[in-house]
Amino acid sequence: MTSTVPASLFRTNGSSALQAVFLDMDGTLVDTEGFWWDAEVEVFADLGHRLDEAWRDIVVGGPMTRSAGYLIESTGADITVAELTVLLNEKFEQRITRGVPLMPGAERLLAELARHNIPTALVSASHRRIIDRILASLGRDRFALTVAGDEVGRTKPHPEPYLTAARGVGADPTLCAVIEDTATGVAAAEAAGCRVVAVPSVAPIAPSPGRVVVRSLEEVNVPFLRTLITGI
């Protein structure tokens, strides 16, 4: 976990206003979910196996250990999760060397959050080495804190990543908004007590109490996020 701002700066005074915004990375801020699937397809092809396109919805958004384990079990590939994780990270890094495309509305939303001085954290199941590369495209200074999947004891769908982010910026999780693109990430954020904006990237996500589903980040702005917390 890395932070650029002391947590004490964001200690709250008991108000019920929006205290922080936490954003997922792959498929939410950057258009890389397809990159991950392509990397998985290529690695397994090298191992002599063909992935079923139907598995894509199953592995999207999950921690790499879970996705890797599922694909090994499904294909019967003779490789360990640890070995596969290394290969997948290497293939993915090859694809992002020249930069990554941002999702529609991502640049505008990050700039708006900065203008309003709202503490913002990047919370991803991806490993630190991947996050640090992608931050070159996103802008490291856009985030008070970044949390990687290999820096927490339990990653998404466990709430630990979002609870870690809330502690890092000194915020109450119930007064934080989370933006996620997968059911796995949504589950983690809701388990942490956060309000959630779901922007589905691959598999559909249904609305529910405390969760709003939108088609694009272009529909999300600071007044919208504040309304999630205050209800008005």
UniProtKB/TrEMBL annotation:
Give the species this sequence originates from: Streptomyces gardneri
Q: Which PANTHER family match?
A: 2-DEOXYGLUCOSE-6-PHOSPHATE PHOSPHATASE 2 (PTHR18901), PSEUDOURIDINE-5'-PHOSPHATASE (PTHR18901:SF38)
- Superkingdom field: Bacteria
NCBIfam families to which the protein is assigned, alphabetical: HAD-SF-IA-v3
- CDD domains referenced in this protein's UniProt entry, alphabetically: HAD_BPGM-like (cd07505)
Q: Which GO terms describe its molecular function?
A: hydrolase activity
Protein's name according to its UniProt entry: Hydrolase
- Which InterPro entries does the protein's record reference? HAD-like_sf, HAD-SF_hydro_IA, HAD_sf, PGP-like_dom2
Could you tell me the keywords of this UniProt record? Hydrolase
